[in-house]
Amino acid sequence: MFENKKILILGMARSGYEAAKVLIKRGNTVILNDGKEEEKLDKEQVEELRELGVTVVLGTHPDDLLDDTFDYLIKNPGVPIRHKYVVKARNLNIEVINEVELAYRLLPKTVKLIGITGTNGKTTTTTLTYEILKKAFNDRVHLAGNIGYPLCSILDKVVDDDIIVMEVSAQQGENLVTFKPNVGLMTNLSPAHLEFFGDYDYYKSVKAKMFYNQTTDDVAIMNMENKDVMDLLKGIKSQTKYFSSKNEINGVYLKDNAIYYYGDKVIDTNIIRIKGMHNLENCMSAIAIVKEFGVDNEIIREVISHFKGVEHRLEYVDTVDGRTFYNDTEATNIKCTQIALSSFSEPTLIILGGLERGQVLEDLTPYMKNVKAILSIGQCRERVREYGESLGIKTFCYEYMKDGFKELYNYSSPGDVILLSPATASWDQYKECEVRGAEFKKLVNELKEKEK
């Protein structure tokens, strides 16, 4: 399979780069095309592919590049689903797949594949599942998918009976054909990425694809409290199992401040560091998955109780003189900050602001009842200041977070939460929001050193 074929890869990025390396080593004729100019791509990677024999066409999508001599089109997940090459390939009966489908067809047949998808919670659930299984099975476990490691990149490391924990995005689901996980989990569903997929129904159908590919030998785990998930997957052939944050069910559930698995108490919630009901659901999801592999409660408790969360997503940073710091720099919209604020019952001091996007700050109001102070920063800081003061909340206004951080801290008391959850993007001051989060963590570390 995938030998001595002519293949066009549309879009480079990490997945296109890894797919090209796999395919050229199997004796294929490989052409990689990306609309970006060469100086905007990784120069070393482009040079490596050319040295391997890949034809690299950059900066344009020539009309005559794709013709009926090609056997496959490998589409990068970020490429629009109606790109002219995709349309033309289908008219020419050329199979259109993606890097995930390519790698899946090349995996050893005895590998156990876990696929985690949904609208929210995928990355945290995937990371936590991986950490638990890694603790239980050591080097037999691999991490892949939308979490930053293309499935093609681990093909050389995977052997028979290994376990792959994979985050599957909606964009990756678009061009799946035969891909199916042995254990699949759907965290939840709500409208998202509609600008890419066109409408919610199509988005849902893409999310469901890997579950409808499953057989009776496979397992599908669903969020019983999400009606869209339950309705969407009611026709699948696989064995269905469930988790619930609201009801005691035959599965994984929350009861009396503990998580249970079919009546057996697994972990008390008071030792779980990651905050919020959404994170308890992520923990339940991970427990449901790892129990399919027989992991005992002791290992689950050890890993979950020490898990600080995915970096930059409501990530526990540290506790300094009784104040607990959380980094939620990935909260680049109002909805994410609503979730963050609803995760805490303690008095909270929040850092808000960044790129001016015309955010409707008033949508935060129902979630601000525990907020005792605001540090408004960035391009929209004056509007944030006016909003905070309209609520009667003490608001410190600084252009840069580092300049107002100490004043915010001095206003806090032991037992308070200090939260970076800006509700907007970071591009007014930072290359990416992760840089903003790293700065916040640096400020916390410096504060801790001074308090010693």
Automatic annotation (TrEMBL):
Signal sequence segment: none
Q: Which segments does the entry list as coiled coil?
A: none
Q: In which pathway does it act?
A: Cell wall biogenesis; peptidoglycan biosynthesis
Localization (cell): Cytoplasm
A single GO BP: peptidoglycan biosynthetic process
Q: Which molecular-function annotation in GO is an example for this chain?
A: UDP-N-acetylmuramoylalanine-D-glutamate ligase activity
| One Pfam family this sequence matches | Mur_ligase_M
InterPro entries to which the protein is assigned, alphabetical:
Mur-like_cat_sf, Mur_ligase_C_dom_sf, Mur_ligase_cen, MurD
The entry's keywords: ATP-binding, Cytoplasm, Ligase, Nucleotide-binding
The Mur ligase central domain is annotated at 116-289
Which Gene Ontology terms of cellular component type are present? cytoplasm
PANTHER family xref list: UDP-N-ACETYLMURAMOYLALANINE--D-GLUTAMATE LIGASE
Protein name per the record? UDP-N-acetylmuramoyl-L-alanyl-D-glutamate synthetase
Q: Which organism is it from?
A: human gut metagenome
Source species taxonomy: unclassified sequences, metagenomes, organismal metagenomes
